[in-house]
Amino acid sequence: MSRSLPPRPLRPATLLVRGGTMRSDQDETSEALFLTSGFVYDSAEQAEATFNGTATHFQYSRFGNPTVAMLEQRLAALEGAEACRLTATGMAAVHAAMLSHLKAGDRVVASRALFGSCHWIVSTLLPRYGIESEFVDGADLAQWDRALSKPTALVLLETPSNPMLEMVDLPAVAALAHRAGAIVVVDNVFATPLLQKPLALGADVVVYSCTKHMDGQGRVLGGAVLGSKTWVEEVLQPFTRNTGPAISPFNAWVVLKGLETLSLRVEAMCRGAAAIADALAGRKEVARVLYPFRADHPQQALARRQMAGGGTLVTFELKPGPGDARAEGAKAAAFRFCNALRLIDISNNLGDSKSMVTHPATTTHMRIGAEERARLGITDGTIRLSVGLEDVADLIEDLDEALAAAGQAR
Ligand SMILES: *Cc1c(COP(=O)(O)O)cnc(C)c1O
């Protein structure tokens, strides 16, 4: 059976359930899991035609696979991108998007507030291959302007950023990047494809870790790269086919089914995050709260221009407790807080149905060093909370109890 979707534009929730579905000749309801590494040909002639490009047929799951193709098409439809390729992890997606495009002698400009491994690629890996890189403060357009006054091949940025939820003005940076000859690659993990559309705001390539909200239940790793058909087929695809960061069809299938509830989950998580941000702001143990849609976020206007919701993460800063040693800052209070939580998990993951906190200074942002942390505004009292799907009232009660512990004298 081969009914096709109606030709009119479909809304995101519909695309998340229906987009990219390819029924096999068994007419199954749920998307089939093609757990196969290879494919067979009817004849030597069909094999020849497949390899010389005159026939369309799957060849090998490093190149393509029907379950993987369904997820690629669903994500492309949701993003409004011409094409998508999946990878085994979010980092493989970032790495492939960059290395497929760059060569020795090129220059890269990136926002400083990047996911740890993205920071390592830009600061440590690229220079090894003769690719120059420069970091700028993502919120400062004057720094982007200066850095992009020289010819540049690629711009990498994350907005909102991890963990300080800092925004980058996408249309403004895209205009500066294009003037310098660069493509703009946006890591859109924190916003999800539902809250922010980087391609419509001037970006050329969007990357995701499917590990986060798309799976959303902590089961599998995955990554996605989206862009124009020409770039994906001519620049990215030769790189991914020949270097082999392919996603397992099983993992692609888990993410594909995860997407069916993405809009419901992200909506509920945003609602929870906004309520929790307000509750935290009223507590005496909390020095400040960062949530993109709150009136006290320094870039609230930009966030509201660029995003359809405030996101599923809240970052906040704890004050030191009355008995805490000055030199230690708020680390002891932050640890008392984390250890006193009974519902919310301590984990560096995010976008999960289970709420999680992390203390960036001693975990995800430990390796970048104190000086770089200070530049990013990460203190020893900074806590990042990924809001899940539990009842918000239960989460607020858990947070209240843990804050009381954080504020106690030792
Ligand atoms: C998790 C994450 C990545 C990396 O994704 P993996 O699937 O863990 O490889 C990249 N960027 C951001 C913003 C992330 O949160």
TrEMBL record:
Record EC number: 2.5.1.-
Keywords per UniProt: Amino-acid biosynthesis, Methionine biosynthesis, Pyridoxal phosphate, Transferase
Biological process (GO), any one: transsulfuration
GO MF entry, a single one: pyridoxal phosphate binding
Coiled coil: none
Domain of life: Bacteria
Gene3D superfamilies hit by this protein: Aspartate Aminotransferase, domain 1, Type I PLP-dependent aspartate aminotransferase-like (Major domain)
InterPro entries for this protein: Cys/Met-Metab_PyrdxlP-dep_enz (IPR000277), O-succ-hSer_sulfhydrylase (IPR006234), PyrdxlP-dep_Trfase (IPR015424), PyrdxlP-dep_Trfase_major (IPR015421), PyrdxlP-dep_Trfase_small (IPR015422)
Modified residues (N6-(pyridoxal phosphate)lysine): K212
Cofactor(s) listed: pyridoxal 5'-phosphate
Pathway it works in: Amino-acid biosynthesis; L-methionine biosynthesis via de novo pathway; L-homocysteine from O-succinyl-L-homoserine: step 1/1
Primary enzyme class: transferase
The reaction(s) this protein catalyses: O-succinyl-L-homoserine + hydrogen sulfide = L-homocysteine + succinate
A GO CC term attached to the entry: cytoplasm
Biological function: Catalyzes the formation of L-homocysteine from O-succinyl-L-homoserine (OSHS) and hydrogen sulfide.
Assembly: Homotetramer.
Family affiliation: Belongs to the trans-sulfuration enzymes family. MetZ subfamily.
Listed name of the protein: O-succinylhomoserine sulfhydrylase
